[in-house]
């Protein structure tokens, strides 16, 4: 990826030099109106229609991901967690708009897609082809949207980061405004899965933070996304490609790192060890293991669910698995699994672990209910409730449970046989 970073740096330098070669400014004005004429965003961009420009870049992907990508660019072996099928031809999509909101007044002036280009049997690394479409004239949006839809194709499988809330609605709105229908088939938004896996570990899951903490990737000479609309407005006013060059590079990073993240998440969501090969450039934070196993239990295949159950039992049998927040998360999941499988021994073990480690009123009530209803051990259940009340204080749930258990002890004795 260092080659692409270097290429982006050279492009920005060329834009600066090119802008200065015509009297020190890239602004060209109409003699009659004094209004900036449409200027390409850079020398490497091709004009597809008046005011609409296109460029394409390609970058090699790490060989460790080669097993996920076929020679035809098909992404295979997708985790069932994604709910996007076992294979797809992904279109990594990112949109930059003229405003920070996604309303009808916000124009998607820069849209980019990334496509896998598979390696060959001889062992060449797979690549990502990044294609960008830029609107240099707001009056040309009709032709721009037409070019965009040709770029997207008929049945795209979009892969985005927060695209369900932003990118797709923006493009859908712009299509309607130009009397078109956005082509839509499948959509995989990586943000919800990323949050489930990594927010317990790294906190905020903004893409820039995920890139650094999870993927070990850093951007060079990047700008904050909040500055993008202002830069575009300045470009339209001045017709100077230098003010938009950093936005274009920022956009390439978004698409490239989106593809890296998708491949990495698919690897994380596999219960099989990844193949040996090239790793990431920097330190990588692993996912929250309890969250990962819960996702696989909730959305995985039947084989995944069996492996999850085995994995949890192994972890809870180890000292590390029983301690700290990991043990509590695993125990919560063990309760869910044990109830679905009616494994009462595993359920009791998990309930006791939570009662002893976390010790909330809810944990006490859950354990007391199990001892009362499943095993008829009324005195032991009452002791659990009283101990929790001594530590946490009485509340209506504990008072109700204690009164109920005392009545049963009077009626049946210490334990119902």
From TrEMBL:
Name the record gives this protein: YprB ribonuclease H-like domain-containing protein
Region (Disordered): 12-47
UniProt xrefs under SUPFAM superfamilies: Ribonuclease H-like
Residues passing through the membrane, by range: none
Signal peptide per UniProt: none
Bias (Low complexity): 24-35
Entry-linked Pfam families: RNase_H_2
The YprB ribonuclease H-like domain, residue ranges: 91-265
């Amino acid at each position: 990826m260092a080659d692409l970073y270097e290429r982006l740096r050279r492009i920005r330098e060329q834009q600066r030099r090119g802008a200065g070669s015509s009297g020190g400014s890239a602004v060209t004005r109409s003699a009659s109106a004094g209004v900036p004429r449409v200027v390409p965003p850079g020398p490497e961009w091709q004009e597809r229609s008046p005011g609409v420009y296109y460029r394409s870049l390609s970058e090699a992907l790490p060989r460790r991901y080669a097993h996920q990508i076929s020679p035809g660019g098909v992404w295979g072996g997708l985790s069932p967690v994604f709910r996007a099928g076992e294979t797809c031809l992904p279109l990594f999509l990112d949109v930059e708009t003229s405003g920070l909101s996604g309303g009808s007044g916000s124009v998607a002036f820069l849209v980019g897609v990334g496509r896998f280009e598979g390696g060959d049997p001889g062992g060449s690394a797979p690549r990502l082809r990044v294609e960008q479409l830029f609107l240099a004239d707001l009056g040309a949006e009709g032709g721009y949207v037409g070019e965009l839809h040709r770029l997207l194709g008929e049945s795209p499988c979009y892969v985005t980061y927060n695209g369900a809330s932003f990118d797709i609605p923006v493009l859908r709105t712009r299509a309607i405004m130009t009397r078109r229908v956005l082509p839509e088939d499948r959509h995989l938004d990586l943000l919800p899965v990323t949050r489930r896996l990594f927010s317990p570990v790294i906190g905020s899951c903004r893409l820039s933070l995920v890139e650094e903490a999870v993927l070990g990737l850093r951007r060079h000479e990047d700008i904050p996304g909040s500055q993008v609309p202002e830069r575009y407005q300045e470009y339209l006013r001045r017709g100077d490609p230098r003010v938009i060059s950093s936005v274009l590079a920022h956009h390439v990073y978004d698409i490239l790192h989106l593809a890296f993240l998708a491949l990495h998440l698919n690897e994380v969501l596999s219960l099989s060890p990844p193949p040996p090969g090239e790793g990431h450039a920097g330190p990588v934070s692993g996912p929250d293991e309890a969250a990962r196993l819960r996702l696989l239990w909730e959305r995985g295949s039947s084989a995944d669910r069996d492996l999850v159950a085995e994995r949890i039992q192994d972890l809870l049998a180890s000292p590390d698995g029983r301690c700290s927040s990991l043990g509590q998360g695993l125990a919560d999941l063990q309760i869910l699994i044990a109830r679905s499988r009616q494994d009462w021994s595993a359920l009791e073990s998990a309930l006791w672990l939570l009662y002893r480690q976390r010790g909330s009123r809810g944990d006490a009530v859950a354990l007391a209910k199990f001892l009362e209803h499943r095993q008829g051990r009324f005195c032991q259940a009452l002791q659990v409730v009283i101990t929790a009340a001594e530590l946490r204080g009485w509340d209506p749930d504990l008072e109700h449970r204690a009164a109920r258990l005392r009545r049963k002890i009077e009626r049946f004795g210490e334990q119902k046989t």
